[in-house]
Specification:
Number of strands: 24
CATH architecture of the largest domain: 2-Layer Sandwich
Structural class: alpha+beta
Number of domains: 5
Number of helices: 15
CATH topology of the largest domain: Beta-Lactamase
Shape: rod-shaped
Bound molecules: adenosine-5'-diphosphate
CATH superfamily of the largest domain: CHASE domain
Strand content: 15-25%
Helix content: 40-55%
CATH class of the largest domain: Alpha Beta
Distance between the termini: 66 Å
Radius of gyration: 69 Å
Length: about 675
């Protein structure tokens, strides 16, 4: 459901035990977080299930309560009804026992009126008869049509009841029977007495359905389906006002009828529940549905949020990896200058940990006290939004006290609502860059100086060569003049001629100086793709004749293919020339068999190496360190600037020049130059 990342410290090699512990702690934390998340996610599920269960239980309880209430009301209604019925039956028995008689015989008129009032009184009776003690029918109401009072044979079950009533001297009920119209009827036989003398039996005939109709009030019939059933469970009469299905458990109670076991059964009708309870149930159902729908929507929303969170975590991890990999320091500050974020590169740069920096306000621990005023002023400018857009340089201090140059670019920090909440600064340590620039400047200066020195050297040698003649001529003219003056052979014309020639020679010398100076000035350094092979070939042929004259040999060792070298051809050739010339000079005393000057060129990856090796006197260890010092020389006629100029020239081309003693005797001077991206020679 949820994807989690644990970022384990990558620096595991420093302390192998710790990262393991850290890793297990991190795993434990991750597991705990996952468990917490699961618990958190299961809680609403649980609450939801509980709610559904509670609603279910509530509805069930409600239903049960309703049922019990109805049952209680059914029982109480039926008790009331049974009492009412019993009362009416007892009352009818009493009224039957009071049938008027005259001399132990029915008084026909009074009998009729008494019976009539009995039938008209909602008593449930439909007929009243008077039977003699012998069982003869003496009177009947209503009178049977055309039958008179002639005796009729009694049914067997009536006879039994009659006998029982006579013997028991109390009312007895005969078993119910089905009349011609199929309606069930029931008779009660009540013994009649006149002064304690039995004068017969009064028979009250009930139509059971009529009895039920008259005895059960309307409201009872509306609530229950009522029926009278016999001992075998057969329905003898029933009353139901509403023709709808009955439901629920029936309630049955036995009627206390002497001689008969009849029962009354009530089946409650399906009652519509009251409005309030219907409303409550409906609200509960709606509430449950609402909870289900909102829970489902919430689940979808949470799933979406989790997906977004996972994407965000990936993005954060990606950005963190990016921030950790850059070498530019990043530092975020609030509008009042408090640090809120630093990346690892910034921490490495200043030597403080993120914990030491985050939350700090000015003055920062990496501000250099020596430059506090400038730093403060620049800080105020940044916070005022007045920092130079092209960035600014500032001196900062590392934790170890080292001061370094930093180039800072400040940009406003905008939050997700588009509000300006602070400043984000990118900090670059430009100390090395500045040092390299300074070195390059110094090298350029030295190169210029070398170029001037070379020009000066060339000028000096040319001057020496060119001025030799006019100076020698001036010298000989002046010597002639002295000779004339010493021997007092003063010839105006001759002296004038000699001085005029002197002047001409002096003017020639001046012209030579001007020309050479003008030539020397043209030697500004400029680089171009150079063919080192050709340069060395030219130098070898230049020095070849002189070397051969002194019994020496020059040996050139070149690879077949050499790339072009980006360099100043004049300066480079001058430097190699100096080294070759020194080598030849060092071999002046060497026997001709040994006197070989070797110039070899090789390419190693992106560097070109030129080695000038001789079999000469070599360099004593005590002076080896001083070889490249300006004006250091061991030669009487030497200037001591040659090697110094050579090194300046090589360093100006970003190369190195150094000395090594040759194992076979003699010296080796090595030049190593970067090739950059020069294309190889075809
Ligand atoms: P110069 O040649 O005018 O003396 P350099 O700067 O060219 O000036 O050389 C300085 C010194 O280095 C030389 O005087 C010499 O002692 C020593 N030296 C230079 N090249 C060699 C070499 N190939 N063998 C021995 N010594 C050398």
């Amino acid at each position: 459901m949820t994807t989690l990342w644990a970022f384990v410290d990558a620096n595991t090699s420093a302390a192998p035990a710790k990262p393991e512990a850290a890793s297990s702690t991190s795993e434990g934390a991750t597991r705990r977080a996952v468990n917490d998340g699961l618990l958190l996610w299961r809680l609403p599920h649980l609450a939801f299930l509980l709610l559904i269960a509670c609603v279910g239980i509530l509805l069930w309880y409600w239903e049960r309560h309703e049922h019990e209430t109805q049952r209680a009301s059914l029982i109480s209604d039926m008790l009331w009804f049974e009492q009412n019925l019993q009362f009416q039956l007892r009352h009818n028995e009493e009224l039957l026992a009071q049938l008027p008689s005259i001399g132990g015989k029915p008084d026909s008129l009074a009998f009729a009126s008494h019976a009539k009032s009995l039938l008209a009184n909602d008593s449930g009776l439909i007929r009243v008869l008077w039977l003699s003690p012998e069982g003869q029918r003496l009177a009947t109401y209503p009178p049977p049509l055309g039958e008179g009072v002639r005796p009729l044979a009694m049914a067997k079950f009536i006879e039994d009841a009659f006998k029982l009533a006579m013997t028991a001297s109390r009312p007895i009920y005969a078993p119910p029977w089905q009349a011609e119209d199929h309606a069930w009827q029931l008779a009660v036989l009540v013994p009649l007495y006149d002064d304690k003398r039995n004068i017969g039996v009064a028979v009250g005939v009930y139509a059971l359905s009529r009895l039920l109709d008259q005895m059960a009030p309307w409201w009872l019939a509306e609530r229950y389906h009522l029926s009278i059933i016999d001992a075998n469970g057969a329905v003898l009469a029933q009353r139901s006002k509403i023709e709808i299905d009955a439901f629920g458990d029936p309630y049955q109670m036995t009627l206390d009828l002497p001689g008969q076991a009849l029962s009354i059964r009530a089946l409650p009708f399906r009652q519509p529940p009251p409005l309030a309870s219907r409303l409550i149930v409906a609200s509960l159902i709606i509430l449950a549905v609402l909870v289900i729908v909102s829970f489902w929507a919430l689940r979808r929303d949470v799933a979406k949020r989790l997906a977004a969170e996972s994407a965000l975590k990936n993005e954060v991890a990606f950005r963190k990896a990016m921030e950790d990999s850059v070498h530019t320091g990043l530092r975020a500050r609030t509008l009042d200058g408090r640090i809120t974020y630093v990346n690892p590169a910034f921490c490495r740069m200043v030597g403080f940990t993120a914990e030491e920096l985050i939350g700090r306000s000015p003055p920062m621990p990496y501000w250099a006290e020596e430059y506090l005023d400038e730093t403060r002023a620049m800080h105020a400018r940044v916070l005022a939004g007045d920092a130079p857009s092209e960035g600014f340089e500032i001196k900062l201090k590392r934790k170890n006290g080292e001061i370094f140059d930093a180039l800072i670019h400040e940009a406003p920090l905008i939050d997700s609502q588009g509000r300006h909440v602070g400043w984000m600064g990118s900090v670059v340590d430009i100390t090395e860059h500045k040092r390299a620039a300074e070195l390059a400047r110094q090298q350029e200066e030295r190169l210029q100086a070398s170029a001037r020195l070379i020009a000066m050297g060339e000028m000096a040698s040319s001057l020496a060569h060119e001025l030799n003649q006019p100076l020698a001529a001036i010298s000989s003219y002046l010597a002639g003049c002295r000779h004339l003056l010493a021997h007092r052979q003063v010839e105006q014309q001759a002296i004038d001629d000699a001085l005029a020639k002197c002047m001409a020679q002096a003017q020639r010398a001046a012209a030579v100086i001007r020309r050479i100076y003008a030539f020397a000035r043209r030697h500004e350094p400029h680089t171009e793709p150079c063919d080192v092979k050709a340069i060395i070939g030219d130098l070898a042929s230049l020095l070849e004749a002189e070397a051969r004259r002194q019994g020496m040999r020059i040996q050139i060792e070149l690879p077949d293919r050499l790339p072009l070298l980006e360099a100043d051809p004049v300066l480079l050739s001058q430097a190699i020339f100096n080294l070759m010339k020194n080598g030849l000079e060092a071999m002046r005393e060497a026997p001709s068999s040994r006197a070989i000057l070797t110039v070899s060129v090789s390419v190693e990856r992106d560097r070109l190496q030129i080695v000038v090796a001789d079999r000469g006197c070599g360099v004593p260890p005590e002076i080896a360190e001083r070889l490249f010092e300006p004006f250091f020389t061991t030669k009487s006629e030497g200037l001591g600037v040659g090697l110094n100029i050579c090194r300046s020239v090589v360093e100006a081309h970003h190369g190195r020049l150094w000395y090594e003693p040759d194992a076979a005797g003699g010296s080796r001077f090595l030049i190593s130059l970067p090739l950059f991206s020069s294309p190889p020679l075809p």
